[in-house]
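Notes from the 1:1 (GR / supervisor)

We went over the backlog. Supervisor wanted to see one worked example end to end before approving the batch request, so GR pasted a single chain during the call. The sequence is below; no edits were made to it. Supervisor asked that the structure be written out right there so they could see what the output format looks like.
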Amino acid sequence: MGYKTGGNAAGRLLSAVLVVGMCIGAAHVGATPMPKARPYVGNSTLLPPMPLPQSKVSVQPSPVPVGKPLSLVPVPLENQRVFPPASTARMCVLRGWSVEISSAVDGPGGCGIDQPVSLRSVVGGGQEIGLTMPVQIECELAQKLDGWMQDVAVPAARRELGVSITRIRTAAGYACRGRNNKRGAKLSEHGKGNAIDIAGFYLSDGREVTVEEGWDGSSAEVRFLSSLHKGACERFTTVLGPEADRYHQDHLHFDQGCHGKGCKYRVCK
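Structure output shown during the call:
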């Protein structure tokens, strides 16, 4: 009986010790604070990608990234428009074509041109018409000449002669001199690049109609030259022909000189 009683007492003591130990452990665990969450820091060193074998590389159009603004998507070079640099040259704009304005001409004794252009040809009826002698004249006069060619000279050649004009026999453009080449005379409009002299016309059938001979030539030539003279009087402020004086018997003279108060008058002879 004593042995059993002692054994039961020992068992109860061991159970009590285990319970107390478990309580103490639980209390210790509950009292220990949990560590704060820390961001994961991985290896920031990026290794270069392994090159693909050349035989497996294929060029494919890059897809548009989802949600990326189109303004940030690179555009292939072949799809971009390349604009040439803008020209800084000043241009004298004519009807359907243009010519570069050169540096101003500063001549002696009041001679000179503010906006000079050099003409080797003009355009009429959609075709280039050469000048036998290049002329340097004012841009505004070139514009008047261009309109006269388009509206008067080319239609008159077709109507009266049944041909087209291929070349113009030019006699004078800019020339620093007095009127009618007289020494001491008033400065000519030629001295301002504001006048041009025309002596004749080469035609598509091989003929040449000159002012000197055609003014009193065949009826068709007379009608042709008369039409040119009349049409010029509607565009230039000064038009002089064979009937004006002995200085203009072999050419037509056109200029943009000022006549009268306010430059409102025209001279047509």
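Supervisor's comment: Residues 1-7, 23-32, 34-86 have pLDDT under 50 and may be disordered.
Batch request approved.
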